[in-house]
Predict the structure of Outer-membrane lipoprotein carrier protein.
Amino acid sequence: MKQWIAAAALVSLAGWAQADGLQSLEKFMTSSQAGEAQFTQTVTSPAKQGQAGRVKTSSGSFAFQRPGKFKFIYQKPFDQTIVADGSVLTVYDADLNQVTQRQQSKALGQTPAALLASASSLQALKAEFDVSSLPEADGQQWAQAIPKNKDGQIKQVKVGFKGDELQTLEIEDGFGQRSVLRFVGFKALPSLPGSAFEFAIPSGAEVIRQ
């Protein structure tokens, strides 16, 4: 009898632990209407026969504001800006002095950006993703999102929280490539100025509109 009670208690506790990741994600989406942080990104490509997987590391700053505005500024090892103003998604490669723009509505959808900036609520997110909690790991509460559209490039996304603070974003694509973004100094803000998501095309830059 005592063993049954102990087992039931463990199951109950496990259920609470697994609920934390989803609750953290929901709270993040409802309470953090804007935010900013520094980040480090590690991209690991799948190993080829006889070779180890390639690892690339970059870093920069990140900001977002719901609905649908965000900016990634990569500073190391290359200079690149990715900014969405709510209408247009712009990618600027400083080394090539090249700007690529496309309609934001066609570029996002089932992407990690939808988790952080596009969807206004957990219910809205569920229209594009199957969302669930994962067990606590590395001192973080985890939620997992799997795109409902299996034809996209993203296989799954995991989001890690420490308390109310966004800590980690893990992305696995259909080719086996894994990207991990670790956020530092995340600040939830009531809003950011619209100018934070404006992009002025540099003089002489090649512009490609898709």
